[in-house]
Amino acid sequence: MAKSKAKEATRTGMTSTILNKIFFERKTLQEVLQEAEHDHEGGAGKLTLIDLLAIGIGATIGSGVFVLTGKAVPIAGGGAIVAWLIAGAICFLSSSSYMELTSRLPTKGSCYVFSYHSLGELASVVGAVCLTMEYGISSAGIARTWSLKFGRAVGIAEHSFICYNGQEFGSESCSGDVDNYFDPIAGVMVLLCTAVVARGLDMGKIIINSFTAAKILLVIFMIVAGLCCWTGNMFESTETFFPQGVGGVVKVTPMLFWGFIGFDEVCCMASKAADPVKTMPWAMGGTLLGAGLISALAQFALYAMVPYQPGMGSLPFEKAFEEKGLKWVSLIVAIGELILLPLVCLLSLLPQPEVTAAMSEDRMMPSIFRQRNKSGTFVKGAIIVGAVASVLAMLVPFTLLGDVISFGVLFSFNLTNLSLINLRYGNGGARREPTVDILGWILMVALAVAGYCCQQGLVERALAGMSISLPALAGFIASSIIALGILSLLAFGFEQKCDMADANIYKARGVPFLPGFAIFCNWFLIASFSWTNVGYFVAFLGLFLVTYIFNLLRSAGTWSSPVTSDSDQNSTVSASEVSCDSEIGMSTK
C-alpha cells in the first residue's frame, strides 16, 4: 500500500514537473549568453556585415524576383507593386522586435530562442515549426521551381516529372502552374545544397557572396531590360494599374511574405556573426530595405513590359522577354536563373541545422542534431534535415507549400512581437510577471479575432460588393477594445525594467503599441489563407509536437534537476544578469 502511494506521488510529481516545464519554463539570459559564447569559440570564420547582407538579400530577391513576381501579375496586375511595398512595411513593423531581441539574445535560433526566453517552452516549439516552414520546407519549394525551369530549358520536362493523376505533364491539372507531380530533379538539387551546408561556413560564404553579387547584377539587368520594353501606359487609369482592384492587392500581399524570409534567416545566423549585438540590427535592416526595393522595382519592370490580360497565367521574366521577341535576353535570364536560383535553395536550407541544433541543446530533439565537427558545423544535423527536405521537394507540390510557408513566416512574426512585449515587462528568463504573461496571450487571441473579423467579415465582403457582416463588425469592435485595453494597461500599469541605458543594444520604439499593431496586421493577412492551408500547418505542427512530447517523456527521468517553480526561478536568477533577465516585480505607475 505504501509502495503504491509512493509510486502515485512520484507519478503525480513527474506530471506536475513536465507540465511546469512545458508551459512555464524559460531559457535564462545567462544560458543564452553561455551558448552564444560557446558558439563563438568554434573554429569557423565569422560572418561580417557584408556576409550577412549577402545571405539576407540573396535569399530574399531570389525567392522574390525569380519566383514570386511572375505569379503576382495575374493576381493583382500593377497592384502587385503596391503589395510588395505593403508587405515590406508590415515586415518593418516586426523587424524592430527582431532587432532588439537579437541584440539582447545574440545566438542561433531566432524566433525559437526569443519565444523560449520570453514565452515558454511550448511556444518555442511552435516557433521552431514556423522556422522550419521558412527554411527547410521553403528550400523544397524553391528546388521545385528551379527544376521546372531546368526541365523546360533542356527540353526534358515531359519526361522528368511523373504526374500524380496519371496524365502527361503539361495538362491542365499537371503543369508549371499546378505542379501535382513527382519531381526527382528537385530532390537532387536539395541534396547538393545539403552537401555545401555540411561542408561548413568557410566554403559556404564564399559561394554565397559570389553568387549574391552575380544575382544582384542579373536582377539589375532584368530591370533595365524590362523598362526598355515598356508597353503602354500602366498609369492611364486606375483600372489599368489595379485591374483586380484593391481586392487583388489584398489577395497577393500574404503570398509575398515568402519573399521576405531573408531578414529572418539573417537573424538565425547570429551565432555565426562577428560582434552580433552591433552587427545584426544593421544586417536585418539593410536586408529588409534593399530586398524590398529591389523586388518592388523588378515587379514594376515586369508589369511595364507585360500589361495585365484577363486569364493570363504565371509569367516569369524569361517568358516575358521571349514574348517580346528578345530571345537573347530571355536566354541570358534563363541561364542566369538556372545558375543562381540554387543559391536561394542553399540559403533557405542554411539556417535549418542551427534551429534543430538549438532545440537539441535544450533537450527537445535527439543529441545527434547538436553534434558538430572541429569547425563548428552541425554536419549530421545538416544531412538529416537536408534528406527530409529532399523528400519533400520530390513529393509535395509547390502549390501546397507556398501559402503554408507564408503562414509560418507571419506566425513567427507574431511570436517574436509578443516575445518582446513579454520580455520588456518582466518575463525574460523566468515567469516573474504571471499577470503580464496571461494578458499577453489574451492580447494575441483578441488581435487574432480582430484580424479575422476585419479581413473576412468586413474587407473581403466589401471588396466583393457584399454588405458587411454585422456579427463580424461586432466581433472586430469588441476584440479591438479588449486589445487596446490590454496594451494601455501594459503601457501605463506596468513599468519596463529592461536595461534601456546600454547604447550597444538596439531598442524598439513604441512598445507595446507598435508590436501590438504588427500582430494585428499579421493576423489580418493570415486570415486570407484557406482553411486547407491552415490545416496543413496544424498537421505539421502536430507531428512536431508529438516528436517533442515523446522526447520529453523519454528524457524526463534523466533531467539533472527538477524544473523549479516560478518563485524558485526568481531566487536563482543572478543579480549580475542585466538586460530583461534580472529580478523585477510588478510596478504600478
Polypeptide structure, described:
- This protein is an all-alpha fold and 589 residues long.
- It is built from 23 helices and 2 strands.
- Strands 1-2 form a two-stranded antiparallel ribbon.
- It starts with a helix and ends in a 17-residue tail after the last helix.
- 54% of the residues are buried.
Flag low-confidence runs: 559-579, 582-589
Cα gyration radius (Å): 24 Å
One letter per element, helices H and strands E, the order comes to: HHHHHHHEEHHHHHHHHHHHHHHHH
Structural class by helix and strand composition: mainly alpha
Choose one word for the global shape.
Answer: globular
Number of strands: 2
> Which whole number gives the mean pLDDT?
83
- H/I helix tally: 23
> Largest beta sheet, briefly?
2 strands, antiparallel
Strand content: under 5%
Strands side by side in the biggest sheet: 1-2
- Amino- and carboxy-terminal Cα gap: 55 Å
Share in helix = over 70%
